[in-house]
């Protein structure tokens, strides 16, 4: 029921606050990645050779980091979704009693393949300068930090959708029963909130990405990532993918 639900700390306001806080993480992670040039060798599919198999350095870093983090219990939290779920060892740490907020079907929703494609295909080329400075391992680690921050934000759509469903099940149930994606998308969309989010992330990119000097407040318009690009990326990719997660979750909400 909705009272125990909000007692868990999950309300539309609290999930929106969580998304807002995650913007900071995402903007900072993009700023950190943009410190390096594109460094294409990081993505060369035959750069690393392990036991006769060839893979990219970023694939190598993601696989091994996720394996360690899985052992450390990272994916026990339903806010976390691995990029390579097929290769994960079991957790070796005691379990923590995370609140059971989501419908069990949430565990089957993982759109990290689409996030991976969006990140390497659209986002990365638009925030990095051309060039090669040899820092491939740090580059790959920065990529994973960005990917994890984006993935956490986008999959947080499960929590947003759960809160919206609980607030007005009578609105959502007919669309869920008829498995009507369009209707669900319309129900969960708030254009004014989206406009606010896009403006705010642009502003965060300006504030976090300026050179801070003690002598003058004049930043000369130099930002570490282009604020309008960050805002556009949110509008074109981050918000639509979050909405996709929300729809996928709602479709299964009455299973
Ligand atoms: O805040 C919400 O209501 C959300 O569903 C999140 C979000 C977003 O991704 O930022 C997505 C859909 C809404 O149109 C507005 C914002």
UniProtKB/TrEMBL annotation:
Coiled-coil region: none
Compartments where found: Cytoplasm
GO biological process: amino acid biosynthetic process; aromatic amino acid family biosynthetic process; chorismate metabolic process; prephenate(2-) biosynthetic process
Primary subcellular site in the record, as a coarse category: cytoplasm
The Chorismate mutase domain, residue ranges: 136-246
GO cellular component, one term: cytoplasm
Residues spanning the membrane: none
The name this protein goes by in its record: Chorismate mutase
Lineage: Eukaryota, Viridiplantae, Streptophyta, Embryophyta, Tracheophyta
């Amino acid at each position: 029921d909705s009272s125990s639900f909000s007692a868990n700390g999950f309300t539309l306001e609290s999930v929106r606050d969580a998304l807002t806080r995650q913007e900071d993480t995402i903007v900072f992670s993009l700023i950190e990645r943009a410190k390096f040039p594109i460094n294409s060798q990081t993505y060369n599919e035959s750069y690393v050779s392990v036991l006769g198999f060839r893979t990219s350095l970023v694939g190598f870093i993601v696989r091994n980091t996720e394996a360690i983090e899985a052992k450390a219990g990272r994916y026990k939290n339903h806010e976390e979704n691995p990029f390579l779920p097929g290769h994960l060892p079991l957790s070796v740490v005691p379990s923590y009693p995370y609140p059971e907020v989501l419908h069990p079907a949430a565990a089957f929703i993982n759109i990290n393949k689409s996030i991976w494609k969006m990140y390497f295909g659209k986002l990365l080329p638009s925030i990095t300068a051309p060039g090669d400075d040899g820092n491939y391992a740090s580059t790959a680690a920065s990529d994973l930090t960005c990917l994890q921050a984006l993935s956490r934000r986008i999959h947080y759509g499960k929590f947003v959708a759960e809160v919206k469903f609980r607030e007005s099940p009578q609105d959502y149930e007919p669309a869920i029963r008829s498995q009507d994606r369009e209707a669900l998308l319309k129900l969960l969309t708030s254009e004014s909130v989206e406009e606010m989010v896009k403006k705010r992330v642009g502003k965060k990119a300006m504030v976090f990405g300026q050179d801070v000097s003690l002598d003058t407040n004049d930043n000369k318009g130099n930002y570490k990532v282009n604020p309008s690009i960050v805002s556009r990326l949110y509008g074109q990719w981050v918000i639509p993918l979050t909405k996709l997660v929300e729809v996928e979750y709602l479709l299964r909400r009455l299973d």
